[in-house]
């Protein structure tokens, strides 16, 4: 049997027996290759930590070409920011009108889309100047926002995720996020990474990894203990904020009012998840 057919035979055998063929990269994020769903448990390793504005109530976070873009919340304090990764210095900032409580943020086709919590309005900015160029309306609350290269992907604090047309903000389809057939509510900040949706779960130290086709949770990332007790104050809020550097294969996380932002590597525990 030729080496080519031997490789095909082994691959077919592994798939037929339910084995997981996956490839881990430097961030610890694995890419599945036709493997069946198997919910995995992940812990983490801190690769780097960077300063983060402890007054920033982080609602949306993304990485692009060496810098971070951040949406901060709270009425009278909401903003859109360009932030230097290594120092946490705010390079550019625009403050929102006081009635807005800013939420999720995404960069798509040189436009920054920023959700608002209960105003049912998305604000659209020119990426370079931060000049507002458009607005969109939507029903319900706005929480997290990301994209898959074609659609915007939005959470609203429930177990539902909407896929939206970037040109009209109209809903294209909706998925229900479940873990072993149980709804997973409180989906918050989102990031689309290597074909999966990563979602902060509000008021927890967990991030869900979600299959965007079925809504099934494929993995749980437990970030308990990431922010040390000495870095916590009475004002420190929960884990929230996921950003991915695709070119450098780096995963960043932070929280609302956290004084630090972390680059982490995911470590698979290869055992069943308990919640």
Describe this structure in words.
Helices cover 5% and strands 49% of the residues. The protein contains one helix and 24 strands. The longest helix has 14 residues, at 3-16. The protein is globular.
The SS-based structural class is mainly beta
Helical segment count: 1
Mean pLDDT: 89
Poorly predicted segments: 1-23, 271-275
Strand tally is 24
Question: How far apart, in Å, are the first and last alpha carbons?
Answer: 47 Å
Rough outline: globular
Order of helices and strands: HEEEEEEEEEEEEEEEEEEEEEEEE
Oligomer: single chain
What is the helix fraction of residues, given as a range? under 10%
Kindly report the spatial arrangement of strands forming the biggest sheet: 18-19-20-21-3-24-23-22
* Major beta-sheet overview: 8 strands, mixed
Percentage of residues in DSSP E strands? over 45%
Alpha carbon gyration radius: 19 Å
Concise overview:
With 275 residues, the protein is mostly beta strands. It is built from one helix and 24 strands. The protein has one helix at 3-16; strands at residues 22-24, 30-32, 40-51, 58-64, 67-72, 79-84, 90-95, 102-108, 111-116, 121-126, 132-137, 145-147, 152-155, 160-164, 171-176, 178-179, 182-183, 187-193, 196-201, 206-210, 217-222, 239-245, 250-255, 260-268.
Defining traits:
disordered C terminus, disordered N terminus, mainly beta, globular, 275 residues
Produce the secondary structure layout:
Blueprint: H1 3-16, E1 22-24, E2 30-32, E3 40-51, E4 58-64, E5 67-72, E6 79-84, E7 90-95, E8 102-108, E9 111-116, E10 121-126, E11 132-137, E12 145-147, E13 152-155, E14 160-164, E15 171-176, E16 178-179, E17 182-183, E18 187-193, E19 196-201, E20 206-210, E21 217-222, E22 239-245, E23 250-255, E24 260-268
Parallel strand pairs: 3-21
Antiparallel strand pairs: 1-2, 3-24, 4-5, 5-6, 6-7, 8-9, 9-10, 10-11, 12-13, 13-14, 14-15, 16-17, 18-19, 19-20, 20-21, 22-23, 23-24
């Amino acid at each position: 049997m030729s080496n080519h057919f031997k490789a095909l035979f082994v691959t077919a055998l592994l798939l037929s027996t339910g084995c997981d063929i996956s490839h881990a990269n430097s961030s610890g994020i694995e890419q599945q290759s036709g493997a069946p769903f198997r919910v995995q448990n992940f812990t983490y390793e801190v690769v780097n930590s960077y300063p983060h504005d402890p007054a920033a109530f982080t609602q949306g976070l993304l990485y692009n070409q060496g810098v971070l873009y951040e949406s901060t919340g709270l009425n009278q304090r909401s903003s859109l920011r360009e932030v230097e990764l290594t120092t946490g210095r705010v390079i550019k900032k625009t403050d929102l009108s006081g009635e807005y409580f800013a939420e999720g943020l995404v960069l798509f086709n040189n436009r920054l889309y920023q959700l608002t919590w209960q105003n049912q309005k998305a604000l659209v900015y020119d990426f370079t100047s931060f000049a507002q160029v458009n607005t969109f309306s939507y029903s319900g609350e706005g929480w997290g926002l990301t994209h898959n290269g074609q659609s915007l992907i939005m959470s609203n604090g429930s177990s539902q995720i909407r896929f939206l047309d970037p040109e009209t903000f109209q809903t294209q389809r909706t998925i229900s996020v479940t873990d072993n057939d149980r709804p997973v509510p409180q989906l918050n900040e989102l990031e689309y990474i290597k074909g999966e949706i990563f979602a902060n779960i509000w008021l927890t130290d967990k991030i869900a990894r979600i299959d965007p086709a079925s809504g099934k949770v494929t993995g749980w990332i437990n970030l308990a203990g990431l922010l040390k007790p000495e870095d916590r104050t009475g004002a420190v809020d929960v884990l929230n904020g996921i950003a991915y550097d695709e070119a450098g294969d780096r995963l960043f996380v932070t929280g609302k009012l956290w004084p630090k932002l972390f680059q982490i590597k995911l470590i698979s525990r290869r055992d069943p998840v308990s919640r």
